[in-house]
Specification:
With 399 residues, the chain is α/β, with parallel strands linked by helices. The chain folds into three domains: 102 residues, Translation factors (Elongation Factor Tu (Ef-tu), domain 3), CATH 2.40.30; 129 residues, 3-Layer(aba) Sandwich (Rossmann fold); 89 residues, Ubiquitin-like (UB roll). Helices cover 25% and strands 30% of the residues. It contains ten helices and 19 strands. The strands form five sheets. The chain has a six-stranded parallel sheet, with helices on both faces. A five-stranded mixed sheet has the order 14-13-19-15-17. Strands 5-2-1-6 form a four-stranded antiparallel sheet. Strand 11, helix 8 and strand 12 form a beta-alpha-beta unit. The protein is globular and about 60 Å long. The structure holds FE2/S2 (inorganic) cluster. The site of FE2/S2 (inorganic) cluster has 13 residues, from loops.
Length: 399
């Protein structure tokens, strides 16, 4: 007789961790209310946890480097509360532009959930640089008291003790250190699960020069306070500093950080750094247990070679013709034309920008993680990472 078997995959450590959670789970169940919650409780809880829109205001700003500021965003209403979040998540922030409807940009929340809860405020760090048109606008237009519209906290770049191994190696390029600051601060000083395993954390922080290394004082303080659990390695590509690595983060530096431990890599930084690491990670002597990535989305670079056309409409509306470039994403072309398609992560993972391709073809470099089989069947594309191959006919959703 054939019997079904349940196969449990994973290490003994995973199994032990799962079993270790059971007493706590049972105690939570015992302490829960036996009566059903009021009607309306669940929808109002869902709204509080995942509001479609948060009306915030700049409460404070501070300079982190010559081109980088941190903005503290608190609820605009005195009785408002920020939506809670897991460390590593981002807010999709609306930035008004004179030429049309506001443009959305994702910014990682850089303070820890514990700090955010105590202050009732998020912190985001915004770095300007070549082509950082939106960051420049923010630096120019935001001051204390500026109203800011943001999404609820989103994203999957989060450390999960039950799933991830006990060692986390964070690899950050430039302002890519912001979500890792939240993860590290929460792991070391947050008031999370007191019974959880304390993770060991190594941060490999890359920048061009020392003055661009964000949160130096805070990371130094944490290294001193938690020498057994936190270590930082700095790598500078343009102006070396004594005691720091030179050049770019490579397989040798990552392997030294990992040692013999089972580790998860958390990588966040510009597109160029991700591409560089794509070539380095296969050279590691030990395969990381997990690799999680966050990038800030692609705008592409205008090639100037292919002047293309996108005929675009909203459902049921008339077509409008806009110019596009084969080197820039479809989303950038739409925003440049003053349209306001929905978007959030800008890296192909959330699916908010999903649009229907009626004619033409696009390419991805690489294929986005959020593209589902159903998207292919319905000819849905993710404009935030899709590069036009030829003229397109497109239907976008309402923002
Ligand atoms: S904005 Fe998230 S997939 Fe495009």
């Amino acid at each position: 007789m054939k019997t079904d078997r349940i196969v449990i995959r994973g290490s003994l450590r995973d199994v032990a961790r799962t079993i270790g959670q059971l007493p706590r789970r049972n105690s939570l169940i015992r302490r829960s209310r036996p009566d059903l919650p009021d009607e309306g409780f669940i929808p109002s809880l869902a709204d509080a946890l995942h509001p479609r829109r948060q009306d915030l205001v700049v409460q404070e700003l501070r300079r982190e480097s010559p081109s980088t500021f941190t903005y503290r965003l608190a609820p605009a209403r005195d009785d408002g509360l920020i939506a809670p979040f897991r460390p590593g998540r981002y807010l999709s922030v609306e930035v008004p532009v004179a030429e049309g409807p506001p443009i959305r940009r994702p910014f990682s929340i850089c303070n820890s959930p514990t700090d955010a809860r105590r202050r009732n405020a998020y912190e985001i760090t915004v770095a300007s640089g070549p082509g950082a048109f939106i960051a420049d606008r923010i630096h120019r237009d935001w001051s204390v008291g500026t109203p800011v519209v943001a999404s609820d906290p989103q994203g999957v770049f989060t450390y999960e003790p039950l799933r991830d191994p006990g060692m986390l190696v964070g690899i950050a390029g430039g302002s890519g250190v912001t979500p890792l600051r939240s993860i590290i601060s929460e792991a070391l000083e947050g008031d999370g699960d007191p019974e959880g395993d304390p993770a060991s954390l190594i941060l490999i922080q890359g920048a061009r020069r020392a003055e661009e290394l964000l949160f130096e004082d805070e990371f130094r303080r944490l290294e001193t306070a938690y020498p057994e659990r936190f270590r930082r390695i700095c790598v500078l590509s343009e102006e070396p500093r004594e005691g720091d690595g030179r050049g770019f983060i490579d397989a040798g530096i990552i392997a030294d950080a990992m040692g013999d431990a089972e580790a998860a890599l958390f990588i966040c930084g510009p597109e160029g750094m991700h591409r560089h690491l794509d070539g380095q990670i296969p050279m590691l002597p030990r395969t990381p247990r997990r690799i999680r990535r966050e990038d800030y989305g692609r705008s592409g670079a205008p090639s100037g070679r292919s002047a293309l056309n996108i005929a675009v409409r909203r459902p049921g509306g008339p077509f409008q013709s806009i110019p596009a470039d084969s080197g820039e994403t479809v989303l950038v072309a739409l925003e440049r034309a003053g349209l306001n398609p929905p978007s959030s992560c800008r890296n192909g993972s959330c699916g908010w920008c999903r649009a229907r391709l009626l004619d033409g073809s696009v390419r991805y470099e690489p294929e986005p993680t959020g593209l589902r089989a159903g998207d292919r069947e319905r000819n849905h594309i993710h404009p935030c990472v899709a590069l036009p191959e030829d003229d397109l006919v497109l239907e976008i959703m309402e923002a």
